[in-house]
Amino acid sequence: MSDDDQYRPDGVRLQKVMAAAGVGSRRACEELIARGKVRVNGKRVTQLGLRIDPTSAIIHVRGQRIFLDDKHLTVVLHKPVGVVSTMSDPEGRPCLADYVTEYETRLFHVGRLDTDTSGLIVMTNDGELANRLAHPRWEVPKTYVATVSGEVPRGLGQKLKSGIQLEDGLVSVDNFVVKAVNQDRSVVELTLHSGKNRVVRRMLDEVGHPVQSLVRTRFGTLFLGHMRPGTVRRLENEQLAQLMRMVEL
Q1: Cβ–Cβ under 8 Å, residues 234 and 123
Q2: Nearest to residue 48, comparing CAs of 18, 69, 22?
Q3: Given 114, 116, 126, 168, which residue is catalytic?
Q4: What is the per-residue pLDDT across 61-120, written as a single tens digit (0 to 9) for each?
C-alpha cells in the first residue's frame, strides 16, 4: 500500500488517528486494521504502519464513517409553514438561518421546501454531503403527507406510479397510500425521489386534487417523527452514519 495514494510519509499513523477519534485504544484499533475492518478513502487497509493525512482522509470502521474532529455539523429542521428555504432573504422573510443561529459554521441546505410546505429539511457544513444528497444520481427518497381537495379515487396510486407528464418532464411516485377519505378532502402519503420544484403539488394538481396542506415526513434515512415545527436536531453517531452510507460517504 505504501506506493498508492493512501500513503503519506509525513502523515500520522492510522491507528493513532483512529484512537484520537474515539474508536478505541490504539491496540484495539490495530486489531481492527489487521482484521480488515477499516477503509481509508474507500480502500481496505490491513497495514499497521500506514500513515495518512488526517485533514483529508475519509475513514470507515466496520462500514461506519468516523470523524476526526468535531467540526462536522449536520442538522435537521422541522421547517414551519411561512419560512423560505434559503439561508438569507433580501425581503426580510423568515428563513432557515433563523433557526441555526447557535452554530457559528456556515451551513448548506439540501434542496428546498416551498414556503407553504412544512417538514424535514437537512442542513450541513459538509459541501460534498450536501451535493450528493441533492444530486439525482443518488435518488434520495422523500415522503410527504398531503391533504388534498376531493375524494381520491381508487387507481390514483397506480396512475401516479406509472407517471404524470408535467411541463418539465415525466414524474412518478415510488409509493402511494391513502390515509383518509371523505367527501370534500383526502389525506394521502406519497414517496418519490424526484427533486423537481414543487413536484408534489404539481402532480396532485395535474390529477385534479389540489394540495391544501403538505408536510415532508421523511428524507432518505431520516424521519420527522415527533419534532415540532421550528425545532432543530443535530445528527450524530448511527443516524449520521446511515445518511452518509446512503450516498457512499
Answers
A1: no
A2: 18
A3: 114
A4: 888 888 776 678 999 999 999 999 999 999 999 999 999 999 988 999 998 999 999 999
